[in-house]
Amino acid sequence: EMQLVQSGAEVKKPGESLKISCKASGYKFTGDWVGWVRQMPGKGLEWMGIIFPADSDTRYSPSFQGQVTISADKSISTAYLQWSSLKASDTAIYYCARQSGGSPRGDGMDVWGQGTTVTVSS
Amino acid sequence: DIQMTQSPSSLSASVGDRVTITCRASQSVYSYLNWYQQKPGKVPKLLMFGASSLQKGVPSRFSGSGSGTDFTLTIISLQPEDFATYFCQQSYSTPYTFGPGTKVDVK
Q: Is the CB of residue B46 less than 8 Å away from at least one CB of chain A?
């Protein structure tokens, strides 16, 4: 069974750093792109960026470029999303998802992690 | 960035109704258009990709059409489990933007 399992909920203070993870299983991690999607409380879905774990080719949304870093460790089939200095406005649920089809355009995001809730509050 | 709009933003329907949701892109995305369903507190689920290809396991009452800038998602006979929010997403050009969503609730 194809799965993406994300790390647990986080509560952080403004200015702190954070790295959340997304571990893949049941498919060839290096064969598909993995994306990150933000959902702020009560809001819609925002595409943040994608990474191709085989070579770490990464594409960012301009809205998130410079605000987060997407990375992957293919040796442990895990993708990451990290912040160097969190803001209260980063409070959201963050999902990782597989972009199926082997290309960045792919065939939709077909396998999703369970989401990681990040709360940033002083 | 390619902007995605959806209409309506919400609709009320009854079980058995035919429901149509429209998604429009600010420029052509060819057929790189995906549809997702999200229920409250749940993870989004891929319904359609490539504008009209049904994701494996998704009931055939869902269908998608369109190309270029105008797309539709149709549910031919709404079932109780279909009350949810539906998002379109273009995957033609990064950032792969989502539409704002259409909430389908009980009439």
A: yes
